[in-house]
Amino acid sequence: MPDLIMFRALWTYRGFVWSSVAREFSARYRESLLGAIWSVANPLAMIVIYTVIFSQLMRATLPGQEQQPFAFSIYICAGIITWTLFSEMLQRMTNVFIEHGNLIKKSNFPRICLPAIVTLTALINFAIILALYLLFLAIIGHWPGWLLLALIPLVALQVLFTVGLGILLGTLNVFFRDIGQLTSVVLHFWFWLTPIVYTKTILPPSVQEMMRLNPLEPLIESYQGLFLTHEWPNFAALLPLTLITIALLLIGARFFLSRVGELVDEL
Amino acid sequence: MGVLVVANLSKAYKRYPGKWARTLEWLTGHPRHEKTWVLRDINFRVEPGESVGIVGVNGAGKSTLLKIITGTTRPSSGEVRVDGRIAALLELGMGFHPDFTGRQNVLIAGQLLGLHREEIGTRFGEIEDFAEIGEYIDRTVRTYSSGMQMRLAFSVATAVRPDVLIVDEALAVGDAYFQHKCFARIRRFREQGTTLLIVSHDKSAIQTLCDRAILLEDGVVIRDGPPMEVMDFYNAIIAEKENATVEVGRLQDGRAVTRSGTGEARVESVTLLDEQDRAIEFVNVGQALRLKIQIQAYQELPELTLGYMIKDRLGQTVFGTNTYHLGEPITNLLPGDRRTYVFAFPANLGPGSYSISTALHTQDNHLAANYEWRDLALIFNVINIDRDYFIGVNWIPPEVIVEE
């Protein structure tokens, strides 16, 4: 069972994975005066810009939420925060083997550590921003309560989906460097093809139908529902994404395991 | 623990003719690449506690072989079996991050070697002491000199005794003091049963540390045997020119004699004589000796140099010179000309076995033209019959003066 060996190796090297995650954080802010504040600054800037532009300048309101002044902010943040987790993880995973090419060429360690480090780093970033967001919700009196538990399966599904896709693309990228470029282009389109900064209802019905082809759409919609209208996610709608995730994980693992030996020759 | 077996190992790198070739191959399943073989059918076995040197010119495949043994690269076919933990001093300081302190880097580098946080913690003092970088341990690695980095890296890599240790020429870095310290540690590991694999161009390192040497040429093992014999063969290959030959004969005690060169001139005989012109094999310390070398030219040679070297049991050169440096150039040789040279000197050597190598070439060294190079042309033993007891390869008799 090569999969099993892979997980055991990862477990043996857990110390290395953790130290690398810690190192990544302190490396990022080591020479900066404000330190970890910068890991929050970027998404915060994005949230502020979108909130100001859409809810204040363009006076966008959400149907049925007219009495909640922060409705649009809550809606946008729910989408952007989770989308950022997805895009950050995917982009970094696509390039992770190339980025650490030197280390791979010169020392022998389980290669699966690298995607693991990326995942953990992204999750910690996500946790920081999520905490800020929850603080914001508590202050404006929109705390979701027990519904937050529903966040766990949603994030788990999202992370597994990203890991499956990321490992597949990351391995492919070593052999075909176009994949990395392509991924960032596709991510731009994907962002705008997912109702994050706009609502699905403003689209004509035919386009709404087409949107169902986007496997992430029901996931993002679940986050938005959870935070804005306090509804439980519709888990049935997430079935296609779950199936795709399982398929991606299997394909990604197979592909990675069959090509991992060749990686070093191409770096 | 510590057995290393390399069986039918081959490695080829794939080369694709164009950018799209790989895509086509993956899509159609029809191979479109050419293979460049860098290692072919390598077989050897290293026993626990044995130390083996791997030698070969650049591009012979040494690095690839080591990378496969350490598991960084995978072989195209065949396998490597290692019994126990393997540590490699190949790229010292590779895992170091310049923006972190020595202490932090030690932790990560150790973890990259598969050690646990606690193991590193308990050995930290030892690592720090061995590296001898003082207060720099808490400064960023960026501020280190390359020697300090290498000292710390060596110290981490060898903090726990491995079952198999792989050493590259990395050790050539650092000052002489630290090199001695490194070698001392490697020797101690070896005594404790660590199997050693050393890659080096440094003849003396190979000869003093190894029980055996393996010579690689174009990805094939062309020689596997006692270090001195393999190193002589290796040197012969380096000096070898086109249409030169390398012959290996055997002495009565089984040692190999390597003769190489283009053959325009040859040494016909080498004899060691005492003052009465009797051939001798056992020499007293300090005895007057006469080394008689007879040469013959096979082509017209306007200028020729005859040189000899006295080497100790480990193949280290104790003394060497030639007619060029002695101001006695040999000139205007015609085909068939014979000349005899006698070098008279006192045997200021310590007790032990010595060999003499001879060389025929132009100018002051054998690199430009190598007519003949003969290792182990003659073997003799020095014994201490009537001198005061001393140790070492040289006899440097002192006069003792006691000052009031």
What labels would you give this structure?
heterodimer; A: 267 residues; mainly alpha; 11 helices; globular; B: 404 residues; alpha+beta; Rossmann fold; Coagulation Factor XIII, Chain A, domain 1; 2 domains; 6-stranded mixed beta sheet; 8 helices; 20 strands
Describe the structure.
The complex is a heterodimer of chains A (267) and B (404). By secondary structure, chain A is mainly α. Chain A has one domain (2-266). Helix content of chain A is 74%, strand content 0%. Chain A has eleven helices and no strands. Chain A has helices at 2-12, 14-29, 37-57, 71-99, 101-106, 113-139, 151-175, 178-192, 205-211, 217-229, 239-266. The radius of gyration of chain A is 20 Å and the shape is globular. The mean pLDDT of chain A is 86. Chain B has 404 residues and is of the alpha+beta class. Chain B has two domains: 4-224, Rossmann fold (3-Layer(aba) Sandwich), CATH 3.40.50.300; 228-383, Distorted Sandwich (Coagulation Factor XIII, Chain A, domain 1). Chain B is 23% helix and 37% strand. Chain B has eight helices and 20 strands. In chain B, strands 10, 11, 13, 15, 16, 17, 19 and 20 form an eight-stranded mixed sheet that branches. In chain B, strands 5-6-7-3-8-9 form a six-stranded mixed sheet, with helices on both faces. In chain B, a hairpin with a 2-residue loop joins β8 (212-217) and β9 (220-225). In chain B, α3 (102-112) packs across α4, α3 packs across α5 and α4 (117-131) crosses α5. The model of chain B has no long low-confidence stretch (mean pLDDT 83). The chains are: A mainly alpha (267), B alpha+beta (404).
